[in-house]
Amino acid sequence: EQEAYNDLQKQLDHLYKTLPKDKGWKSEYIFLYKNFWLSRDVIKGLLLIQTYFKPEPTDIFLATFMKSGTTWLKALMFAISNRHHYEFSNHPLLSTGPQSAFPFLDTHIYLDQAITKFDHLPKPRLFATHHPHESLPTSMTSPMSPCKFVYVCRDPKDVLISKWDFMNKIRSKDLVPISFNEAYESFCKGVSEYGPFWDHVLGYWKASKESPDKILFLKYEDMKKEPIVEVRKLAAFMGMAFTTEEEEKGVVEEIVKLCSFETLSSLEVNKSGRQRFIAKETIENQNFFRKGVVGDWENYLTEEMKDRIDSITSDKLKGSGLTL
Ligand code: A3P
């Protein structure tokens, strides 16, 4: 396998030379690979996932477009599935960042410069991914596959602001920062890591309509408005519905509180800790917590910019039954 891994590097070098490329928000370039814009690291991971990742029937994947609520959902899914193992007063999420609660498949698949085996993970295994539905292997996505997906989407206007801020924070200091106008134009054209945003959302939306038992489609805004309702839904979908006794003991409220923006962002580990996502690079946990509110785009977008994004959204989603 190590040899296959080394060969892959050669194939990739060729691929990067032939794929259409554009300016990346984090790295210098992103490449158009099968209709989505991906960084080098992520294309490499995707090829490894397609060839080597062996899903287990009980696996649950958290899929998101970047900056749509991954950190929040990671914490919630981890807290739901491990609630019988830990006390809330001494919970691992209080001392480890939510990003390390379970692996980010896209790059963790080769985090140690070899193909990662995930056999040691407790079942059900939880994984996060930003890959679009259509890019993942059918062993994961086919309606016949028993694996489940939780997808969270968010208003693209808030995603744009959050992503622009985040990417500039983690962008190499050797590169010129991305200006807001540049980010806005690229986002509208679909050109940003894992973009186009709308195609990403639609892929999961359509799949969730076809197989509602396999894909739970959530919205960040609904979760902010009614976290208890959405967390109950999430637990039931994961096959871990809260019992009457748990409801009476206030377990749902405890989980919502533990995973709230206020609790997580004020923890020492999320103020000063770091997380490794690719072999040579770590990201400060604090970068995953900015404001955690709905509608912050109002502080950045002009009326004209807002109208343009809204009209792209309504054109793209027309007839799908989804509104954002
Ligand atoms: P903002 O930049 O709008 O504040 P992701 O986790 O997918 O990278 O998304 C990050 C966004 O989710 C950021 O949005 C971040 O502040 C927000 N976020 C992080 N943790 C959260 C939580 N526990 N509850 C609500 N929002 C959260």
TrEMBL record:
GO MF terms on file? sulfotransferase activity
Which of UniProt's keywords are assigned here?
A: Transferase
Is Ribosomal protein found in the keyword set?
no
Q: Does the keyword Ribosomal protein apply?
A: no
Record-annotated Sulfotransferase domain positions? 57-321
UniProt family annotation: Belongs to the sulfotransferase 1 family.
Q: What is this protein called?
A: Sulfotransferase
